[in-house]
Amino acid sequence: MTVEQNAEEIAIDPAPAAASAQLPVAADLERWGYSLPAAGAQAKRVALEALAQVIQPTQLPSVQYVSRGNTLVIGGDERAVAAAARLATTLPVTLLLTSRPSAQAAALASADLGSGTFPIWGGKVTSLRGHLGDFTATLADLAAVREGAALPAGAVAVFDLVLDFSDPPLFGHHQPPQGYWRIGDEASLESALEEAAGAVGEFDKPRFFDYRANLCAHSRSGIAGCERCIEVCSTEAIAADGDHVKVDPHLCMGCGACASVCPSGAMGFRFPGVADRGAQLRALLGAYRGAGGRDACLLFHNGTDGRELLRGLAAGGGGLPARVVPLESWHVASIGIDLMLGAVALGASQVAILSAGSEAPEYGAALREQVALAQAIVSGLGYEGKHFALVEAGSPAVLGAALEALSPARGPDAPGIFALSDDKRTSVEFAVEHLARHAPSPVTRIALPAGAPYGEVIVDQGKCTLCLACAGACPESALMDGGDVPRLRFLERNCVQCGLCERTCPEDAISLAPGLLLGPAAREARVLNEAQPFHCVSCGKAFGTRQMVDAMLGRLAGHAMFSDPAAKRRLQMCGDCRIVDMMSSKSEVSVLKL
Q: How far apart are CA 218 and CA 241, in angstroms?
């Protein structure tokens, strides 16, 4: 377990370093953009120097962990016993034996290991939740193994740290929480023992995300809508919370995948935010062009195995092609269509994202979806070539071959001068507008793949009764009523294709059609359905649509309660007149007439 550094301590992008007169060292390779000096990459080096001058993002709010080192070791063999004994020399430890120990383990448990005594329980863990400084273990079949070991008062015990020898592990997702180690081989055991010894005290990490509940399309009135952030999160930090979602900042490790898949921009990544990253792109691409560089390919990579692949390629081979400019990210899963389209609109020929192997499977699927969506938009405007690529490489050789195979793609004739926004859909709108203005093949609508967060709502007017349940369920104000007129209006610019309208409609009259409408029409509300208003037969006030009243009369025509013409006529009255008519009718059954 490595406690994440604070935002001030993390370098987002490569910065200049003093060149070495000897063989290239890591700092030199980074400063050179992982290309060797002979590669003709001077424009890239100028661009990286300009990038280093961009003011770094302001420090984010932090999330605090407090750990006193109270450790739970879970296992059933001698390895668990020995690990507990080693940790007990510096930390308060409790050992939970989850199976009958072997003779060797039993002997170790009963021996004086020179570390003082520590509680040893027998039992099993039915659930484990929490994070560094606050793990809650629910236990069953609990018994004291070592004489004098104190048992918890109930079935729940709280710990700061957990070492887990279980198979399968108690946390099975890709990235377990801080303060938890799943032990497999000897290397993972030694690493866990070393890190646990230092995991005592107060620790801070950035709050990587920003959530705006008013934009969230998760659900309405118990009807499920969008769950993309929940499905993609590899740390299980996101959960449903009524019509919205909630994020546990202690479990969030800052992958940013939730922001990249969020259709509305309710979830945002802030390490750095898109606006800050946009400022970096403008400075970098502007300097690159000014130094004579052409066909820039931006390569987003992480600072762990991604960076090591780049170093390996530069140290052991020809390095990156001269036109490939590396950009380090805290996590590549945070790269969404707002940054991809924005980069091309600002002058990049291509955007490549390096997946070096440490990413969760969910992230690969999400990135492929984002790449396909961005490419569909650019290709739909007539720009030739492959503008976006997810490069999955486990070795420098595979990475080098993949990048060499990328031919420059056509971009707009002039780079954009707009600033990217932290509002996701605004950034996409700016980028698409610029790309459309310079499009080789101007169009008014671009077909998009299924699941795209842009599109239109199709209404079957023969089924729709204008009940307007869809407008009430729409979280983005894409569907609206007509005020005093029975009318359903649609503003396509706002639609995120969450499907809430489709699932809410009682008439099964709505379907979704993914696509991107361009131009002023996207900002203008259009009428999807309207009807002749029905006027009360008593007072003349409009209170519904003729279609709705006719449908109601048709459904109730054979009902015994409405066989009387007076009762049937009452269905054609507004609410006020209906009550007056019921109270004045001498034949009406009423509890008041007893």
A: 9
Residues 413 and 277 occupy one common structural domain: yes
pLDDT digits (tens, 9 = 90+) for 374-384: 999 999 999 99
Question: What are the helix (H) ranges across 111-250?
Answer: 186-197, 228-232
CA atoms within 13 A on the CB side of 355: 20
Q: Which residue has the tokens 């349940």?
A: 469
Token pair in block for residue 42: 């001077």
Q: Is the distance from CB of 424 to CB of 274 less than 8 angstroms?
A: yes
Whether 199 and 207 have beta carbons less than 8 Å apart is answered as no
Full domain range(s) for residue 244 = 208-269
Cα→Cα distances 254→239, 273, 481, Å: 16, 12, 40
149 within some domain: yes
What is the residue-averaged pLDDT of the chain? 90
508: left (phi over 0), alpha (psi -120 to 50) or beta: left
Q: How far apart, in whole angstroms, are the C-alpha atoms of residue 476 and residue 214?
A: 9
Distance between CA atoms of 328 and 10, rounded to whole angstroms? 11
Q: What is the DSSP letter of 9?
A: G
3-state secondary structure of 565: helix
Residue 585, token pair as written in the block: 């009718």
Instruction: Examine the domain organization and report whether 322 and 357 are in the same domain.
Output: yes
- Residue in 119, 115, 114, 117 with CA at minimum distance from that of residue 97: 119
- Tokens 């919205």 locate to 244
Which burial class, exposed, middle or buried, applies to 541 when counting CB atoms under 10 A from its CB (0-12, 13-18, 19+)? middle
Residues 290 and 386 in one domain: yes
Cα 415–351–17 angle (5° rounding)? 90
Mean pLDDT of 60-71: 96
Q: Which of 530, 545, 573 is the last residue of a domain?
A: 530
- Can you tell me which residue has the tokens 């890190």? 195
Same-domain pairing of 492 and 568: no
Whole-angstrom Cα distance, residue 388 to residue 371? 6
Q: What is the DSSP string of 39-67?
A: G--HHHHHHHHHHHTSPPPPPPPEEEEEE
Angle at 401 between CA 346 and CA 26, to 5 degrees: 75
For 240-277, what is each residue's pLDDT tens digit? 999 999 999 999 999 999 999 999 999 999 999 999 99
pTM (predicted TM-score): 0.86
Q: What is the pLDDT of residues 413-465, one digit of tens each?
A: 999 999 999 999 999 999 999 999 999 999 999 999 999 999 999 999 999 98
